[in-house]
């Protein structure tokens, strides 16, 4: 019985010291940034980490119980080969995707329905996985109702160091298709090519030949014995309250034998004159 117990304890001890290390990998490698791989061992051992990414090679030898490897990925290749040996044994050999650290792009536009030749005013807030503002290059464009990119709207943009918001104006062509359009935003790889479709962010809107809504027109006249000094206030507003910009034709006539045509054309600014 005593001999069996010693053998069992010896086996347990061997299993503890020969357990596999814990390797902590990121879900993807961040393009043009530092990346970190962590290896946790039961005891201090030597690890060899090899990373190949689009011609870039990283080869590091580390001794210790908790090992941290930091490296930079700058190639536009979509994946990297990671190989890790711990204490002479192969523990990892796999491919990791490489992409920009872009988690979400919030896209806001000023309207939901536009006409031909109008400008789409766009505001963009790009965020990383940690919640910081993404500072890399982005490509923005309009995709028309037939699914084609309007090449004249294709731009490369990025946030500056003093602001988190990107503001752009994209013009809808005067001769184009009606239907559902989208504002399309994607991160850009080194070399100017688009990243895969998983990192495509869109905002939809309609392009229609719509009519302007009805509005109310009010006129206010102040009593005055002198027609030339009589003041007239004109107010034009849409039913939802927004003022109308346009022209108004004011026509005044004296009542009597010597009637005079005092018509006047003026421009209404902010709905009032």
UniProtKB/TrEMBL annotation:
Under InterPro entries, the record lists: A2M/Complement_sys (IPR050473), MG3 (IPR041555)
Q: Name one Pfam family in it.
A: MG3
Signal: is it a keyword of this entry? Answer: yes
UniProt key word Signal? yes
Q: PANTHER family, from UniProt?
A: CD109 ANTIGEN, MACROGLOBULIN / COMPLEMENT
UniProt KW keywords? Signal, Thioester bond
Locate the Macroglobulin domain: which residues? 228-257
Which range is the signal sequence, renumbered to this chain? 1-18
The protein's name in its UniProt record: Macroglobulin domain-containing protein
